[in-house]
Amino acid sequence: MELDMTKYLDVFLEESREHIRSLNSRLLELEKSPGETSGLNEIFRSAHTLKGMSSTMGFDQLADLTHHMENLLAELKEGRMVANSRVVDVLFECIDRLQIMTDNIAQGNNSTGNNTDLIKTLETIRAGHAETAALETVQPEETVEQKELTPTSSSQDMVYNDYDISVLKEALKLGYNIKYMKIGIAPNSMMKAVRAFMVFKVLEEAGEVIKSNPSAQELDEGKYDDHFELVYICQGDVETIMAKINQIAEVKLLQNYSLDPAALTVPEPTTLSAPQAEISPAEEQAAHQSKIPHLKHTVRVDIERLDNLMNLVGELVMYKGRLEQIGSIYKLGELNNTIEQINRITSDLQSVVMKVRMVPIEQVFNRFPRMIRDLAKELGKDVDFYIEGKETELDRTVIDEIGDPLLHLLRNAIDHGLESPQERMRLGKPRQSKLYLRARHEGNNVYIEVEDDGDGINPNKVRARAVKNGLLSTLEAEKLSDEEISMLIFESGFSTANVVTDISGRGVGLDVVKSKIEAMNGEIIVESRPGLGSLFKIKLPLTLAIIQAMMVTVQNETYAIPLTSVDETTMISPHDIKNIQGQEFISLRGSILPLLHLARLVELPENVGEPDDIYVVVVHKGSRQIGLVVDTLIGQQEIVIKNLGKILNGIPGIAGAIIAGDGNVCLILDIATLF
Amino acid sequence: MSLPKVNELEENQVHDEKVQVVAFHLAGAEYAVEIKYIEEINRLINITRVPRAPFYIEGVINLRGSIIPIINLHKKFNLAGQNFDERTRVIIFGIDNIKAAIIVDKVSGVMRLDVANIVEDNQFFSPINTEVIKGMIKVEDRLMIILDLEKMLDTEIN
């Protein structure tokens, strides 16, 4: 029988990634304050768990590398070595290698490469140190901690029934050995289910497990504390099997004796129920708490299921709308009361589902400290990186999209914004530069800021560059305020770095950031104080799944315009429209707006004869304002965005669809690509 | 060339293979699509036009919360104009989580066809879109055009 590990692979990968992440962040902390050993314990534990997990899964190279890391970490932990930059660098290198290896495993490539180079370095560091600190005996062996199991005091005694006893008696007659075994698992084991599986596998090579406590199914799901009991029958050599069990990592045979079925008794029903009845609720609670100390109960849920749930809630909201319509027609008091209740419940349900989909932005932020450390080192800059508000929650639709733009802004800040330490000294600034990444909620929006105390944006440099790149004429450039000039860095084909580096700046940078953020219905602005630093401010909606929209109609079609694109709505009369060279314009409080007819944009035949009152929705595309002529304004509404699907994706002007209260589909306009 | 080629052997093996299809009418002619892709057949419900979509996309419908694009084969195959009446049906099909639907004049039924009898020659169909036609089959006195739904989705996506 093949030991089927595939069903544990996902768990393994996910947990490994978590440990690698934690290793990365702890090591960064350690690097900042090498004397602080509290983080070291965490690092050690993560490395240790990784080792255990990977050897269980048979990824020996991973296990080997972590084993050697652990040896070095043990030296640090015991205070026999100091985490100098060489040690930290090597450890970082190891973490990178672990990352690569787990990625390989995830892609189904089990040959995880050769790590002898790193292992050698790890050993030389350790050995080199051992020579200088000759007297200490090195005791890096992990097995002490690993195999040292908390002795379990009280065992939940196995309960036998008539059937069990008769089976065992039969087995004895046939000459089988009957063994009772109590098997302990390291209490911090991450893979209890796997361990139990392996124990059973070993046992069933030579005999049969008759009974277990907890049941085999619960064991298979890892539902047990630090030990389990079983009754085992076999004919062969029991000792070798025992030895094999003790060889399994994190597993130890605690008790093992022969069982005499004749001595077993079926417990009286009264003795069965009596002890249960004696347990007071308080005790029970205490027992429960001691089992799961300070752990929040969480479940990992497939994103698809959440989307499904979201869809269903959307449907419910839609039919609630239908119900309301019916209620208003028939005017039944009782019905309307019930509808009100349903109304309340559905809106609660909707907000709960929305909350379930929220994830802390930590997920995105956590990968930055390491990247910034490496980048700063590479570019010879000394950067102190601060993260604030990483617990800020956002819908996962936004989380998925925000990583790249932020990465770009941070790289930009280090590469272009921050000066080298020498330059800073010359300017009379502190040698170490500061870089902040902040997130916070404000109303229905999330603000993310990237701030540095570097050189800022030099407006004159930007002016010159804009003129040189043909974005502006010299005259135009002079007319614009410094603020407006700063915004030019978001235009495509713009880069102020004098030297193009491979880190940032090939002229495809901030414009991509901006368009990505606008695609998320967000905004980005930059504030800069030349010589003192710059601040990039991103405003994002909490979710991309639900937005506020202005509902409008043209002829008999209804469209939704995202409110983030709408500046205002207004009503004009036909003679407000000026026609200049075939293009219609209106003047709105002093500014001249081009006028476009939505009917024409959505390929409808134009109305014959303009009505007396013309409704105009003023929308903006970037900094450009435009008046959109519609037939009627229905009003503002919260809408749940639906994807048009692969077949109709990417139609210019259409951002998606919604399902209206009457069950019909309405389209959402995408102002950025509509005209 | 005394030995038959491998692929000829394979072709011989599939000779008595059957395929289950849904047969329907479009502008007087009979068509069939493989049943394994079909999710459901519905009466016509409200279709929302999608501006700027390809000309043969009739629009989208709401199928229990999912948005499904509707392909009008009359338009795609350049057939006579279509009148929607009470026999008009929407055949919803899906392959790998991508769903779409076609509108047909009427559904004539479900039947099993011998794969061997399908003539995989579409050179006669010059006026209409040949790439989504799998072949033709004669069942008693009925002549049916068999459409390849998988190819149809592929061409829509690309």
In round numbers, the mean pLDDT of chain B is 83
**Helical content band of chain A:** 40-55%
- Please, what is the CATH homologous superfamily of the largest domain in chain A? Histidine kinase-like ATPase, C-terminal domain
What oligomeric state best describes the polypeptide chains here? heterodimer
Q: Tell me how many strands of chain A there are.
A: 22
Q: How many structural domains in the coordinates of chain A?
A: 5
Helix content of chain B: 10-25%
Strand order of the largest sheet of chain A: 14-18-19-17-16-15
Largest sheet of chain A: 6 strands, mixed
Question: Would you tell me the structural class of the helices and strands of chain B?
Answer: mainly beta
Q: Which residues of chain B form runs of ≥5 with pLDDT under 50? A: 1-12
CATH uppermost class of chain B: Mainly Beta
Structural class of chain A: alpha+beta
**Helix-strand string of chain B:** HEEEEEHEEEEEH
Alpha carbon gap, first and last residue of chain B: 41 Å
Number of domains of chain B: 1
First and last CA, distance of chain A: 64 Å
Count of extended strands of chain B: 10
Residue stretches of chain A low in confidence (pLDDT < 50, at least 5 long) are 131-156, 268-293, 498-508
> Which superfamily, in CATH terms, is the homologous superfamily of chain B?
CheA-289, Domain 4
Mean pLDDT rating of chain A: 78
Can you characterise this structure?
The complex is a heterodimer of chains A (675) and B (158). Chain A contains 24 helices and 22 strands. Chain B has one domain: Beta Barrel (OB fold (Dihydrolipoamide Acetyltransferase, E2P)), CATH 2.40.50.180. Chain B has helices spanning 6-13, 73-76, 149-157; strands at residues 18-26, 29-34, 38-43, 57-63, 66-72, 89-95, 98-104, 106-114, 133-139, 142-147. Chain B starts with 5 loop residues before the first helix and ends with a helix. The chains are: A alpha+beta (675), B mainly beta (158). Chains A and B meet through helix 13, strand 21 and strand 22 of A and strand 4, strand 5, strand 7 and helix 3 of B.
